[in-house]
Amino acid sequence: MAPEYGLEGIVSIKGDVYSFGILTMEIIMRKKPTDEMFSEEMSLRSLVKETLPLMRNQVGDTNLLSTTGRKQLVANKCALSVLQVALECSVEIPNERPDMKKVVTKLEKIKVNLLSDIETV
């Protein structure tokens, strides 16, 4: 749940954006925020933020990418781009989160790039 909801009970559209970001990370990383590996110092978001620069060749859930070779690199690039959007959606301060229209625009650009890259493979 969004930090502002848990701390202050504030419900807003920005809280939904936060939830979308966390859910997206759960799907790609195949980890839940309640996983026992997470503590007060480490969260799903901090794991993604810290490991994203290191994940150039492999996303968290390899089952998402049932491809090999160049196609796998293209799919991995797409998954990393989606994780970056998820990080933007899940920032602590609600006013710093993008609205869903901007999120959809970013995801559509990622899709266009993916389809374009796949055509060249």
UniProtKB/TrEMBL annotation:
It holds the Pfam family PK_Tyr_Ser-Thr. Residues 1-110 form the Protein kinase domain. Gene3D superfamilies: Transferase(Phosphotransferase) domain 1. It comes from the Eukaryota. This is Protein kinase domain-containing protein. The lineage of its organism: Eukaryota, Viridiplantae, Streptophyta, Embryophyta, Tracheophyta. Transmembrane segments: none annotated. InterPro entries: Kinase-like_dom_sf, LRR_receptor-like_kinase, Prot_kinase_dom, Ser-Thr/Tyr_kinase_cat_dom.
